C-alpha cells in the first residue's frame, strides 16, 4: 500500500465529511457488504421535541424535568427543554442512574422515580391508554414516568428524518449492500421510520447487547458489517462491527467506539464513504 494513496483517500473522505479514527478504516469500509443503522439520532436527527405529556401537572413537570436534566439522551433533552419553558423549578435527585437503551432512575423525597420505555404490559388508566393508542398510531416514541413502581405519567416525543435518508438508503441498496435497522424504540415507531426510508429488515426493542448480537450473528454468517450509530447504547455494536461508524452529533462514547466518524448531518456522506473506500483500496492493491 502506498502511503500517498491512503493519504489522498483520507483527504477525499474528509471532504465528504468522514473522519478516520483507525488506520485500517478504509480497508474495512471497502469490505463491507451489510449495513445496520440505528434509528434515533442516526436515521433521524435526534433533535426531538416533546409532543405530549399526560397528566401535565406541576408535580409531574417537576419530576420529569429534575430527572431528565441529568441525561444526554435525545428524549431527555426534549423533556428538559419543555419543562424549562414552563418555568417549573427543578429539584436535586438522589442516586441518579442511567440504563442505556431503557432510561433513567433516581430518588426524590424518598420516592423512587424511573423514566423509560413503555413496554406495553403496564397498568394504565383509560385516559392514559387512549393517549398511548393515539401516539402509537402516529409512530411517536413513547416513555413513562413511574413513581414507586406505578405509572404516574406518559409522554411522547417526535423526531425528523435526516436529510436525504431515503435517498441514501436507496443508493446503498443499489450498490448491492444489505440494509438493516436496529432500534431500542417500539415496534410502531420502528415501522414508521423503516417504511419512510425504505428499509425492509428491522428489529425493535433492541437493548445495547441485542444490537451487538445482531452484528455478531450476521458476521458469523460470513458478512462484513458496518454498524452506524450515535448513542452510548450503540457502542457495544460499534465495537463488534467490522466497521463502526459513529455520527459526529452523537455521544463521545459512540465516537470513541467507532473506526469512522460522520461529521456531516447528511446520510449521503455514508454512501460517499463506502463508494470511495472501494475505489481507493482498488488503486492501492
Ligand atoms: P435508539 O436505539 O432508537 O437510539 P435508545 O436505545 O436510546 O433508542 O432508547 C430506547 C428507548 O428507551 C426509547 O425509545 C425510550 O422509550 C427509552 N429511553 C431511553 N433513554 C431514555 C430517557 N433518558 N428518557 C426516557 N426514555 C428513554
Ligand atoms: Mg440512537
Give keywords.
285 residues; alpha/beta; Rossmann fold; Calcium-transporting ATPase, cytoplasmic domain N; 2 domains; seven-stranded mixed beta sheet; six-stranded antiparallel beta sheet; 13 strands; elongated; binds adenosine-5'-diphosphate; binds magnesium ion
How would you summarize the topology of this molecule?
Elements: H1 3-15, E1 18-20, H2 25-31, E2 34-38, H3 39-43, E3 49-54, H4 58-68, H5 74-85, E4 94-99, E5 103-108, E6 111-117, H6 126-137, E7 141-147, E8 150-158, H7 165-174, E9 178-182, H8 187-197, E10 201-203, H9 208-220, E11 225-229, H10 235-240, E12 243-247, H11 252-257, E13 260-262, H12 268-284
Residues 38, 40-42, 229-231, 234 line the site of magnesium ion (MG).
Subcellular location: Cell membrane; Endomembrane system
Family: Belongs to the cation transport ATPase (P-type) (TC 3.A.3) family. Type IB subfamily.
Protein name: P-type Cu(+) transporter
Overview of the molecule:
The protein is an alpha/beta fold and 285 residues long. The protein has helices at 3-15, 25-31, 39-43, 58-68, 74-85, 126-137, 165-174, 187-197, 208-220, 235-240, 252-257, 268-284; strands at residues 18-20, 34-38, 49-54, 94-99, 103-108, 111-117, 141-147, 150-158, 178-182, 201-203, 225-229, 243-247, 260-262. The strands form 2 sheets. The chain has a 7-stranded mixed β-sheet, sandwiched between helices. Strands 3-8-7-6-5-4 form a 6-stranded antiparallel β-sheet. Helix 11 (252-257) links the parallel strand 12 (243-247) and strand 13. 47% of the residues are buried. This is P-type Cu(+) transporter. It comes from Sulfobacillus thermotolerans.
Amino acid at each position: 500500500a502506498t502511503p500517498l494513496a491512503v493519504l489522498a483517500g483520507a483527504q477525499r473522505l474528509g471532504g465528504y465529511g468522514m473522519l478516520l479514527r483507525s488506520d485500517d478504516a478504509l480497508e474495512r469500509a471497502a469490505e463491507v457488504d451489510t449495513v445496520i443503522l440505528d434509528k434515533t439520532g442516526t436515521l433521524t436527527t435526534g433533535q426531538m421535541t416533546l409532543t405530549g405529556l399526560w397528566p401535565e401537572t406541576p408535580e409531574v413537570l417537576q419530576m420529569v424535568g429534575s430527572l431528565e436534566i441529568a441525561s444526554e439522551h435525545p428524549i431527555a433533552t426534549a423533556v428538559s427543554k419543555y419543562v424549562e419553558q414552563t418555568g417549573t423549578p427543578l429539584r436535586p435527585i438522589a442516586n441518579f442512574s442511567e440504563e442505556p437503551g431503557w432510561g433513567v432512575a433516581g430518588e426524590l423525597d424518598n420516592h423512587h422515580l424511573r423514566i423509560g420505555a413503555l413496554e406495553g404490559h403496564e397498568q394504565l388508566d383509560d385516559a392514559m391508554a387512549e393517549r398511548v393508542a393515539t401516539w402509537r398510531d402516529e409512530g411517536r416514541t413513547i416513555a413513562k414516568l413511574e413513581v414507586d413502581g406505578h405509572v404516574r405519567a406518559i409522554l411522547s416525543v417526535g423526531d425528523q428524518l435526516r436529510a436525504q435518508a431515503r435517498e441514501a438508503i436507496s443508493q446503498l441498496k443499489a450498490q448491492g449492500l444489505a440494509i438493516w435497522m436496529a432500534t431500542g424504540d417500539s415496534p410502531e415507531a420502528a415501522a414508521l421510520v423503516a417504511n419512510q426510508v425504505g428499509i425492509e429488515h428491522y428489529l425493535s426493542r433492541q437493548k445495547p447487547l441485542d444490537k451487538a448480537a445482531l452484528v455478531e450473528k450476521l458476521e458469523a454468517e460470513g458478512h462484513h458489517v458496518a454498524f452506524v450509530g450515535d448513542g452510548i447504547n450503540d457502542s457495544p455494536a460499534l465495537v463488534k462491527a467490522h466497521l463502526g461508524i459513529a455520527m459526529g452529533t452523537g455521544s463521545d462514547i459512540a465516537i470513541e467506539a467507532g473506526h469512522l466518524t460522520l461529521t456531516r448531518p447528511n446520510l449521503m456522506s455514508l454512501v460517499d464513504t463506502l463508494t470511495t473506500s472501494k475505489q481507493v483500496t482498488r488503486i492501492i492493491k
